[in-house]
Amino acid sequence: MHRPRSVRTAEVSGKRVLVRVDFNVPLENGEVADDTRIRAALPTLELLLERSAAALRLASHLGRPKGPDPEYSMEPVRRRLRELMDDDRIALLENTRFNPGETKNDPAFARELAEGCDLFVNDAFGAAHRAHASTVGVAEILPAYAGLLLERELAELGELLERPDRPYVAVLGGAKVEDKIGVLRALAERADTLLIGGKMAEQVDPASGYELPRDVVAAQAFEPDAEAKIVPAEEVPDGWLGLDIGPETRRAYAERIFAAKTVFWNGPMGVFEWPRFADGTKAVAEAVAACEGHTVVGGGDSVRAVHELGVAERIDWVSTGGGASLELLEGKDLPGVLAIPED
User: Fold this and answer.
1) How far apart are the C-alpha atoms of 75 and 92, rounded to whole Å?
2) Looking at residues 40-60, what average pLDDT do you find?
3) What is the 3-state secondary structure (H, E, C) of 267-295?
């Protein structure tokens, strides 16, 4: 795996530093609803300031705007960042995706971002799988280094690729198997047990060898208050939907997870946003938190679940990258990582 050179080795005193951060955070009523990704970037920013960087220019995307759009302005993020780290040397640029050159890795936009800066630090693991101007283009202009968060993400996920303690249990959930088919196959080769939940369990061949739900919470309609009942996974009534794993599956999965030496979890076990269909995801989250082995959670909904359930602090590593973590575990090279030279 590519090991990019670390910001720890960079000479930053008196330098103007462009820092790619991942501040793609949820907003509610014009304010940051979850500042996890902002807090995750603070150690790198603190290191640069402690080493007397002259200025930090921060770049990030937020959402998927098609151009300038007030709904995706970085202003709420800027306010929250100022509350967490009030330093006049820090300037947060507007949403990089307001410029169409960002997603095209346009050299002109990369030059605009890099103008006046002396070096580039990429600390945005969540965007490292994108070959964009702010992740790859600027690294071709300025001396580039990996931030502390990017380093830690590569180390934690690299352990799962290269030398996991066994037994290694991987848990995958979510809605669509096609979104995760590559990582599904890769984990099947590396993990000792692969537990499948969520809607994708219905799309997996029972003869695949993966462990699938034995029972599900079936609902008459895709509604939070729909009539529901527990049935064997293969006996969901016609027209009904499996919206969560059932109690027998919860117990079986929890036992597998608790006995593991290494656990990776990505994706909910059901429609956990609705309380009546959240017990499966809750059971997995609590089992991962209780496991004495090395535990890693990656992916937006899984991360949200462990934070909402208050167990994130009991998990060894909660990844900030959904798509990036899955692509890395699939064995793919991440463009934003490859753009940084190795030591």
Assistant:
1) 9
2) 98
3) CCCCCCCCHHHCHHHHHHHHHHHHCCCEE
Exactly one of 176, 185, 229, 251 is catalytic; name it.
176
Q: Which helix (H) or strand (E) covers residue 326, if one does? A: helix 323-329
Residue 229 annotated in active site? no
CA 89 vs CA 14, 45, 57: distances in Å: 11, 10, 8
Q: At a CB cut-off of 8 Å and minimum separation 6, what does 66 contact?
A: none
- Is-contact 18 123, C-beta < 8 A? no
Separation between Cα atoms, residue 230 and residue 225, nearest integer Å: 15
Q: Is 323 a catalytic residue?
A: yes
Report which DSSP code applies to 134: I
| Neighbouring-strand partners of residue 245 | 216
Mean pLDDT of the 34-63 span: 96
- Spatial distance between the Cα atoms of 247 and 106, rounded to a whole number of angstroms: 51
Q: Choose the catalytic residue: 5, 190, 314, 323.
A: 323
Q: Is 214 a catalytic residue?
A: no
- Listed in order, strand segments (DSSP E) in the chain are 16-20, 27-28, 31-32, 55-59, 90-92, 119-122, 144-146, 168-172, 193-196, 215-219, 228-232, 241-245, 262-266, 294-297, 317-318
Question: Which of the residues 300, 321, 322, 336 is marked catalytic?
Answer: 300
pLDDT at 250 over 90: yes
* Cβ(9)–Cβ(343) below 8 Å: yes
Residue 37 annotated in active site: yes
CA distances to 63, 100, 128, 227 from 104, in Å: 16, 7, 15, 47
pLDDT at 205: 83
CA distance 61 to 129: 14
Q: Find the radius of gyration of the CA atoms of the chain.
A: 21
Task: For 203-244, write each residue's pLDDT tens digit.
Answer: 888 888 899 999 999 999 999 999 999 999 999 999 999 999
Per-residue model confidence (pLDDT) at position 222: 96
At residue 91, φ and ψ (nearest 5 deg) are -130, 125
What pLDDT is attached to residue 258? 96
